[in-house]
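Example record

One chain of 272 residues, shown exactly as stored in the release files.
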Amino acid sequence: MDINDRSTVAGGDQEYLRDVQYGDGAKLDVRTALHQRFSTATAAFPDFAADLLDWPEAPDVLECGTGTGRFWDNARAPKSSKLTLTDLSPGMVDAAVERAGSHGFDSVAGRACDVQELPFADSSFDVVVANHMLYHVPDPDRGVAELARVLRPDGVLLAATNGYGHMDVIKELVAEVFDDHGDKLYEVFGMDTGEQRLRRSFASIAWHAYDNDLVIDDPAAVTAYGLSFPPGEFATEAEAAAFDTAVNKRFVDGQLRIRTRTGAFVCRNPRR
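Predicted structure tokens for this chain:
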């Protein structure tokens, strides 16, 4: 997909992503909270994803697109890990470093940088994490190539993403009240499209699905979710009220089920 065809969130406006949507963790936290409160999965996503890896002792770990660092809530990564947490947004880096540090990791460093041009030497890391972020990158192939470059030959990349149909009810509600936002995230890098991009830089790729429909009994949480990203984040008072009304109408006997389609690629044998 040409960059000129991208939506604001699908790599079309890096300044917006850095300064507005992810300037701090407030909007991301709203979306994370919905998943945490109403998950039906047997394990939280950070534990599920971390369990996909065989963690070496005291690994050098790079995370790109760290957000607020919630991946490091997992109970699987060794506390001896040497973490380097990066994000396009300095505000996110600060939040992530503080969060990871509060979980007792021995070494946590942060750096604001672009995954398309990582400021690290070749073969610097044993583990690289790029969860739910490659669909925000203007040139995801370049980003993936950089992830492979900084990974050691025997290292592993964990790259989580979503797919078409993820949070389908939310998308329907947005289209009902606003124009269809058409974020095109999963055309850029999704569970249905990501493997092709990863194959250019990794010889071994495995997909692991995360089963986790949401069963929700709080309409306000769904409304907050839908108003945390475009176009809802820029809604007028009247539009926000209309969205809330539409959300409430979807609840049956006090509940709403929302389908998710998410998981993670585990990639080995980086191509040089």
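Notes: The chain is about 35% helix and 20% strand.
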